[in-house]
Amino acid sequence: MALSKKDMVEMYRRMLLVRYFEEKVDELYGLGKIKGGTHLYAGEEAVAIGACAAIKPDDYITSTHRGHGHCVGKGGDPKLMMAELWGKKTGYCKGKGGSLHIADLSSNNLGANGIVGGGIPIATGAGLSIQMKKSKQVVLCFFGDGASNTGSFHESLNMGGVWKLPVVYICENNLYGMSVPAARACAAQPDIAIRATSYGMPGQVVDGMDVLAVYEAVRKAVDKARKGSGPTLIECKTYRYKGHSKSDPRAYRTREEEAEWQARDAILSFRKKLVEKDVLTEKEAERINNEAYEYIEASARFAEESPYPDVSELLEDVYVD
Amino acid sequence: MREITFQQALIEAMREEMLRDERVFLMGEDVGLYGGAYGASRGLFNEFGPERIRDTAISEAAIVGAGVGAALTGMRPIAEIMYIDFTGIAMDQIANQAAKVRYMFGGKARVPLVIRTSCGSGRSFAAQHSQCLEAWFMHVPGLYVVMPSNPYDAKGLLKTCIRDDNPVIFIEHKMSYKMKGQVPKEEYLIPLGQADVKRSGGDVTVIAISTMVQRALKAAEELAVEGIEVEVIDPRSLVPLDMESICSSVKKTGRVIVVHESVERGGPGAEIATRIMEEAFDYLDAPVKRLSGKNCPMPCSPVLEEAAVPQISDIIGAVKEII
Lengths: 321, 323
Ligand SMILES: Cc1ncc(C[n+]2csc(CCOP(=O)(O)OP(=O)(O)O)c2C)c(N)n1
Ligand SMILES: [Mg+2]
Hints:
The complex is a heterodimer. By secondary structure, chain A is of the alpha/beta class.
């Protein structure tokens, strides 16, 4: 499946939506309008958008605490995401989950996760379900470099490898788990992908700042998984632009390192490529950019104007009635 | 007396114990240069270095488990689990290993391990970053469970826990870290199993845990204006539990409310209320009342979050109901 021009334009649009969403969220937190924990995906857009472009609407994903990009990648609506962050009734989870738990089950997004590594076994189980139902779907399982040091990672990839489950394990290596460099937290260096050998699956390193490279690698792994030939571990080297959280002084990394990665910005370089390849004119690219910006502004207005849930909803949804 | 924050009190406690005993060390996620997610080890990395203030990978089972192994073999580790919600990942090491090793080995082993962790709602962090799970640990024989409510108690109790030869889970409420309180410069220790009467009064006993202590004190202040005298008791440790202090208050007031943030069902209030019934039934003038978190996961939305846990007005209401 080669990407059409339309596909590529849509990828560009979604990357912009993620970036503007994160910038808006950052601003709203700063203003104290939104509470709660949030982890921004700015800088890493190529991974979620490239990977999700390689699957179909009925394929599944599991996401992470840094999940806004995955949600948009899978077709989520920033309006409903913003409302969820705001704790509003109109949000994806009626305001009960917030940023850490956005799940859009209608697009087969099995949810963000507050527990680092928490989604990896769940993705594995979704893969098991697909295999047992013979439904030909696949699962993309997103997680960070830090998550690769959890027991859940090891247990799940081993299980996925043994059972040849249709899961693509996508490690977003942004060099740090909170303040701890992956170089000091992972015993085997320099790549997390080399661990794939232990789980009987191929491992591959990809430039996570190149959306087409991510797409291509994930597409191949998805084809393989769909054929019943088992899982793949893909490590995308990327970088989070913002601090881990709002209060993070980023003392564990240098401003130079940040500047080096920002110089390779995935959105800017993709835009350049699209114009060079005559997929878009400068003018069209600018229009898409402006529309994405406006859509996020409208999302914030929608969220702000939406009602909070009623207190009577507190005890609803605990059990199936 | 000088005032310091809860966070500084914890830092001082660990610092003093690390200077006193070189076997004491801290390990956990982001406890080093970053200084801990809530700043509770800020500065210690610079003073003690990466050997004794150890950043770990995101590996909760191994953080606690390595703590158990190190404790069994002569060290005195403090293992930080960033949020109590993540203890689920380490639960085998906590409940099956740390807590039971001594008993299983016929009393021949010791596990001088402190697991420091944060709990509680108040920041819209939702269901996996806001829980109060002390009841999980109260149910495991072999563990001590400590929940300080102010800087003074935090420091004195943490020092005691570090010196204790038993595994302890030390639970700090995330809304407490910035709280200020008087803490003497001079060294002091607070024994486990000693409740503190935070305010005395003869009409109703309110037994409050963690941040509920401050709420109970505010409620008591308001009720005093109306002539209702509330006695506020802070157990400080739930295991061991100071039933003597609790019962002597019950003898005085005859009416008791237990207030905690953790969900009601199977919560610490159930245990405390039952113990009161068993040990001071004859002195009760009314059934023991529980005021606790609602039986639901913690929601994100600020309006729901507030409704999920007892507020000052709820405590006032409960006191008026019981008298
Ligand atoms: C089990 C667990 N441990 C610790 C945390 C706290 N925490 C949240 S994000 C994070 C870092 C995760 O690093 P990584 O997996 O590399 O993802 P990144 O944040 O870099 O995207 C930590 C330690 C958590 N949420 N869950
Ligand atoms: Mg990371």
